[in-house]
Amino acid sequence: MSDLLTCVGLERSFGDLKAVQGVSFSVAVGETYGLLGPNGAGKTTCISMIAGLLDPDAGEVTVAGQAMGPRASAAKNDVGLVPQELAIYPDLSARENLDFFARLYGLDTARRKRRVDEVLEVIGLTDRAGDRAGTYSGGMKRRLNIGIGMLHEPKLLILDEPTVGVDPQSRNAILESVETLATDGMGVLYTTHYMEEAERLCDRIGIIDQGTLVAEGTRRELVGMIGEQDVVRLKTVGDVQAAEAACAVVEGVSSTDVEEDTVVCLVDEAAPRLPALLAAVGATDADVSGVEVREPDIEDVFLHLTGKALRD
Amino acid sequence: MLRAATVILRKDLRLRLRDRSVLLFAFVIPLALTFVFSQLFPTQEDFELTAGVVDLDGDDVAAGFTQGVVAALVDDGLVDATTFEDEAGARAAVEDGDIAAAWILPAGFSADVSAGDGGEIRVLVNPDRALSAEVARGIADGYRAELDRISLVVATSATAAQGALSGSQLEEIAELAVAQAPAVSTTELIAPDQQLDPTSYLAAGMAVFFLFFTVTFGITGFLEERQQGTLQRLLAAPIGIGTVHLGKAMGAFVLGIVSMTVLAIASATMLDASWGDPVGVAVLIVAGVISALGVMAFVGSFARTAEQAGNLQSIVALVFGLAGGVFFPIGAGTLGQLALVSPHGWFLRGLGDLVGSDSWTAVLPATAALVAFGVVFAVPGALRMRRETA
Ligand SMILES: Nc1ncnc2c1ncn2[C@@H]1O[C@H](COP(=O)(O)OP(=O)(O)OP(=O)(O)O)[C@@H](O)[C@H]1O
Ligand SMILES: [Mg+2]
After folding, report:
1. For a designed S-S bond to A300, which of A52, A221, A296, B331 qualifies (C-beta 3.0 to 4.6 A apart)?
2. Model confidence at A312, in pLDDT bands (50, 70, 90)?
3. Per-residue confidence (pLDDT) for residue B372, from 0 to 100
4. To the nearest whole number, what is the mean pLDDT of chain B?
5. Of chain A residues 148-167, which have a CB less than 8 A from chain B?
6. pLDDT computed for residue A165 by the predictor
7. Residue B32 has what pLDDT?
8. Close Cβ partners of B321 (under 8 Å, ≥ 6 residues apart)
9. Residue A3, beta-bridge partner list
10. From atom 12 of ligand 1, which residue's Cα is the shortest distance away?
11. Do B230 and A89 touch (CB under 8 A)?
């Protein structure tokens, strides 16, 4: 069996809150898998269970054939974790941070030195390797955070929203290094709420909302789920909520949502429905100031499946 | 487990060395305070008890006190004694502040003691002069305790002889015993746990006081890891939470030992202090660090953040320090007993025992108490932390 990671029926509650309920998926060797979901969907909770930081209430995680858990040393050795929040020592330099974790993972001296240099190169911090990490820019800290996760060459690298709060340039650098690792055969589990990142990096994407995996597949498969539909975006002036309500009842519209001043409608076919949509908005206090029609993407799939936008 | 814990320990020590506050707490402040306080504090040579003696008894057991014990203390320069004819005269002198205390040996004292029938030395004190009062009581109690020991000897001999001894023979034995034993040594009387000279006492007191702050870096270090997210990272590595705790405890232990050792040596070379026999001191230091670790781990387990832990621990360190007499030496009385609810008190007492003896094994009772303190607190502390992070 070529599955690197298997999760079966993962469940976890915090008090009354069911953060994760019945999540099952698997990641094949060398595959990049994306968990895409909005804030609070349960991505980090899933990842904590997969990395052996948190015991699931139910279900199990297997990494390279070994059961994962807080005391599963062998399984943990096969996983590299890049936590969502920065997890570096600000009073140590990048080199000292890497060296410490390399020792913790038990790398022998030769390999440790080689890996620290290699990783510094990959994350582009060779020049600043001796400076205290606390003095780095936000992007540099993020890159160090990622570097520590890949240091011991795990079979599975888990990145939890690694690009949050990063400028476009650093973000691109991060995405590129993830692509490189994937090409080198590392399995990657990548969580994000940026559709573009998931589409660019991932072989397969799992859509997670309110603790449940609502859909899973390649980009093409996911978009195919909403069939031959079109997306109509109506930019409005005035009461956008009223405009949405009006659009929702127009024939052929399967779901609607509001993004700032724009009403997003998923319709069976754009051309014949447009006049009715415009008329519907015209009947409210709002006016249409711009119209856009396009092919659906994963964000629209999310809208279709959950009735809300990925980002709010 | 030990390998990974050592890796964590090395990392922490490196961080601590970069963090000046540790150096300040562990080395600089205790030394500086010792120096300042030792300038303020009267040395033992300066202390003299001015006391009155009223002998209403006039018999031999009373003489054992007035001419034996008190005379010896006068010779040592520790007591300035004045004889009064009656209690009223002594009382007036105490009230006027001419003397700090007076011993009254009531009529029939010798007879009562010989009859095994009580016999108390009454002590008049001036409550404003607490230290003198304490010392005067200590001297009287010491003599009484010695007399009790003697009557026990007499009683035992009497029993052993199965009544074969006559009353006058018994009396002779008693007299012999009294004569043989001016017994109560002066140092013991001054207060059993103050045998260190004041500078050494202060240096050791400051050192153990700040030890309780120094070891908190282990616990706050753990909470910091949690706050800055690195704990997750440690736990994602193939090590358990126990290894992290072990690493932190080892770090605090090393820091505590180094700090105490440096302070013992520095106060000896710079301030002329002496903590006593090095072996005994080393044993006590290790035990002291264990007690500090245990107590502070327990306190730290109630905190969510490093800051909270720091505050809680400061309070506990201060209370224990005060109770244990690190700021001012506490006498042998009730306060002296109170000091033993605190590891600080035990540590200082251990050093006192060490000075009063010629074998390092004199520290063993205090060592046992300190280790017990450490264990009694550490176990629930560790359980609490384990549950917290599970
Ligand atoms: N330790 C915890 N205690 C209580 N509630 C928690 C805990 N961790 C997570 N939760 C709750 O569980 C839910 C899922 O949180 P989780 O962090 O897994 O979401 P996420 O998908 O990672 O979100 P984000 O994109 O914001 O990081 C949230 O409602 C969160 O408040
Ligand atoms: Mg998250």
Report:
1. A296
2. low
3. 95
4. 82
5. 148
6. 80
7. 84
8. B205, B208, B209, B212, B327, B342, B344
9. A28
10. A19
11. yes
The reply to whether residue B11 touches residue A100, judged by beta carbons under 8 angstroms, is yes
- The torsion angles phi and psi of A170, rounded to 5 degrees, stand at -60, -35
Q: Which residues of B121-137 are buried (b: 16+ CB within 10 A; e: fewer)?
A: bebbbbeebebbbbbbb
Task: Give the pLDDT confidence of B121-153 residue by residue, as tens digits.
Answer: 888 888 777 778 888 888 888 888 777 777 676
Ligand 1: list residues with CB < 6 Å. A 14, 17, 19, 37, 39-45, 84, 161, 193
C-alpha closest to that of A33 among A174, A202, A185: A202
DSSP character at residue B360: G
Q: What is d(CA A97, CA A262) in angstroms, rounded to the nearest whole number? A: 46
Ligand 1 centre distance from Cα of residue A134 (Å): 27
* Chain A neighbors of B230, CB-CB under 8 A: 87-89
- DSSP secondary structure code for residue B183 in this structure: -
CB A101 to CB B228 under 8 A? no
The answer to whether B63 touches B121, Cβ cutoff 8 Å, is no
Domain ranges of chain A: 3-224, 229-295
Architecture of domain B49-180: 3-Layer(aba) Sandwich (3.40)
- CATH class (in words) of the domain with range A3-224: alpha beta
Q: Region B280-291: what's the mean pLDDT?
A: 95
* Arithmetic mean of pLDDT, A159-167: 89
| pTM, two decimal places | 0.73
Ligand closest to CA A35: 1
Cα of A183 vs centre of ligand 2, distance in Å, is 26
Residue ranges of the domains in chain B?
2-41+192-389, 49-180
A33 beta partners: A189, A204
> How large is the average pLDDT for residues B317-322?
89
**Average pLDDT of A191-210?**
92
Quote the ipTM score. Answer: 0.83
Return left, alpha or beta for A304; rule: phi > 0 is left, psi -120 to 50 is alpha, else beta: alpha
Tokens of A292: 């856009």
